[in-house]
Write a structure and sequence with these properties.
The chain is an alpha/beta fold. The chain is 44% helix and 15% strand. The protein has a 5-stranded parallel β-sheet with strand order 5-4-3-10-11, with helices on both faces. A 4-stranded antiparallel β-sheet has the order 6-7-8-9. A 3-stranded mixed β-sheet has the order 13-12-14, covered by helices on one side. Strand 10, helix 7 and strand 11 form a beta-alpha-beta unit. The mean pLDDT is 96.
Length: 409
């Protein structure tokens, strides 16, 4: 599976700061110190309703992580998956009377278009669950053969008790885990499981549903969590720098994935930091496919909204915050984009070197994009009030906003 084209990231004078970011697993801020190549895995879409603003906000956050790292003169090895076979996708395809493969391809193509328009830097490896199956099967077999997994009526489940570090990502109590498991794709009430929280690794073939050769596992398809583990281990290995996604992935997805990987390798932790973006609401409720209260990037674009304004609307909120999309949020972003473009269109302006450092410092401090935007606002206000004599300043600001915030002026 191919990703989308990369927009050019302008080179800036000087060098960025190391990133301090909130780690869900420790509950505090950690300073990331990758080697020459920073490694990040971000969980991708299930392609049956793409790309809503909740998606966009999440990928915007991890795009900023990449840009901070690139500004430190590191390379970035970024991996993202596509869950292109799963119950919600199959259910939507049946509801709409469309082939599930065609639906997945259509929505994935739309997601690529939206990511390109929003200037999100693409992953080096963009891997679908279906194409990862040949790598998933051996991992499930290894877990089963090691006693970390067991069969139940042809399905294969992971035993959470096989990982002594289970629970160290989300730090939730068992009752909360059980509740969230039921809400987020698990089956805690299925009779015969060793532990209600045990997640499925391999689902035996069901009549009328797609299935693949699973070797000694029999025909079937992979569970959700093992999909990401197989892709991450194959392309990044253990101990990569950031595991990212929305806050609703901390449990069960990232918790279970970490345990799968740790049981497979005997190493801990799977990732040095678990980073989670907040949820976006509409009309007082979290945007979700199940509720249908979605605002789509493609719809906004079709309505003539500049993708740069959409991106500024996302950047106006701290990535970890839960916030609500309103018409006013978009109007403010459109107005800000207009002010910034007017400011950099003049031949000279106030000195910009200090502004670049302000943006760098804000982003290094747990991706504080609102503080970075406020710094640019102040420079643009000075430009509007009294201008300046630095001929290179507008160009510096334009390049810095592009390189560090992903907004083309």
């Amino acid at each position: 599976m191919h990703a989308w084209p990369a927009s050019e990231v302008p080179a800036l004078p000087g060098q960025g700061r190391d990133l301090r970011i909130h780690d869900t697993a420790t509950g505090g801020s950690v300073t990331l110190d990758p080697g020459p190549v920073a490694r990040i895995y971000v969980c991708g879409i299930t392609p049956y309703d793409a790309t809503h603003l909740g998606h966009a906000a999440t990928y915007n956050a991890f795009d900023l992580v990449q840009r901070v790292w690139l500004d430190t003169k590191r390379q970035v090895h970024y991996v993202q998956n596509v869950t292109d076979v799963d119950d919600p996708l199959l259910e939507r395809a049946e509801r709409d009377g469309i082939d599930w493969v065609a639906l997945a391809e259509k929505e994935t193509a739309l997601f690529r278009e939206d990511m390109t328009a929003l200037r999100m830097l693409p992953p080096q490896h963009y891997i679908g669950a279906v194409e990862a199956i040949p790598g998933i099967v051996p991992l499930v077999e290894r877990l089963r053969d090691a006693g970390a997994a067991y069969e139940l009526e042809g399905d294969v489940y992971f035993s959470v008790e096989s990982d002594p570090n289970f629970g160290t990502v989300s730090h939730l109590d068992a009752a909360t885990m059980r509740l969230l498991s039921a809400e987020r794709g698990g089956d805690p009430d299925r009779p015969g499981k060793k532990n209600p929280l045990d997640p499925m690794l391999w689902m035996a073939a069901r009549e009328g549903e797609p299935s693949w050769d699973g070797g000694s596992l029999g025909r079937g398809r992979p569970g959700w969590h093992i999909e990401c583990v197989a892709i991450a281990l194959d392309h990044l290995g253990m101990g990569f720098d950031v595991q990212g996604g929305g806050s609703d992935l901390a449990f069960p997805h990232h918790e279970m994935g970490a345990s799968h990987a740790q049981a497979l390798t005997g190493e801990f932790p799977m990732a040095k930091a678990y980073v989670h973006a907040g949820m976006v609401a509409l009309h007082g409720e979290k945007m979700s496919k199940s509720k249908g209260n979605l605002v789509f990037v493609s719809t906004l674009r079709q309505d003539g909204v500049d993708p740069a304004a959409i991106r500024l609307a996302l950047l106006a909120h701290h990535y970890r915050a839960d916030w609500e999309w309103t018409d006013q949020v978009l109007e403010d972003a459109v107005a800000r984009l207009g002010r910034w473009r007017a400011a950099v269109s003049r031949p000279d302006g106030p000195p910009a070197e200090a502004l670049v450092e302000e943006i760098r410092e804000a982003l290094a401090a747990d991706l504080d994009a609102p503080a970075a935007l406020a710094a640019v606002d102040r420079w643009a206000a000075l430009q509007d009030e009294r201008g300046g004599t630095d001929e290179g300043a507008p160009g510096v600001v334009s390049r810095a906003v592009d390189a560090l915030l992903g907004v083309a002026l």
